[in-house]
Amino acid sequence: xxxxxxxxxxxxxxxxxxAEILIVSFLLYRVLVVYTGTxxxxxxxxxxxxxxxxxxxxxxxxxxxxxxxxQVFTYGAFAxxxxxxxxxRAALARLGRTRLFQAFARLEQQEVMDGIAEAADRxxxxxxxxxxxxEQEVDLLNHVDxxxxxxxxxxxxxxxxxxxPYSPLHDGAVIVKRDRIAYAGSVILRLSESPxxxxxxxxxxxxxxxxxxxxxxxxxxxxxxxxQISLAHEGRLYRGLRPDELRQRLKAGGExxxxxxxxxxxxxxxxxxxxxxGS
Length: 279
Description:
About 50% of the residues lie in helices and about 15% in strands. The chain is of the alpha+beta class. The protein folds into two domains: about 1-85, no CATH class; about 100-270, DNA integrity scanning protein, DisA, N-terminal domain (YojJ-like (1). It has a seven-stranded mixed β-sheet with strand order 3-5-4-1-7-8-9, sandwiched between helices. Strand 7 and strand 8 form a beta hairpin. The model is unreliable at about 255-279 (pLDDT under 50).
């Protein structure tokens, strides 16, 4: 009996071991929450399968398969870093965020969010399409093809004017940095590549989702066909928002500050529904 206890001695855990297990478990949970349904998650599943095959082949005392897989693990790590550099950058940015910093940033941008919500309401009523990307901590200029530099203090009137049809700057998106409109016009966003996004989702909404998957930006989308207001954040699309709901979510940094109301159902939040190509 004593021999068995000595053999299982590694199972005796102290407070430090428990703390380490909890920290690692939390980090793994956050990784799964952030990347579930994305391309990175599929690669993670494939990696787990390869590791399982490697362990099984070692147990069976095979030679060729463990050798080949060891080479894949050696050089594949460098390839994954290059391929998933945007996802890694976004993950590190999320880890660097603190609630205290977010509280000060939101307090500083209350008027800005009010102006964006009011502009979105005006555009929606007129059924004028547009994308407004609000930069948080991750620099958006590394993720978009630049448009026309504006560098003007944000206002409802200016935002509405930018998206007016037939104006030189109406086509594309607007980049908002703090309290200023940084770029407008031919701002091109990368479309979402997530397999969870339906093929029929509109170009504007795909672009908004794509940017929200790579950064912590708050991306407001107004559909020119339906006049519907949506918000993309952290790879999720919140559809059918009323102006007051959009204002609350913007001020809360994309998080829901009150229960989901009839304007945005659970289906609208978790799984983007089909929209026409022009929306």
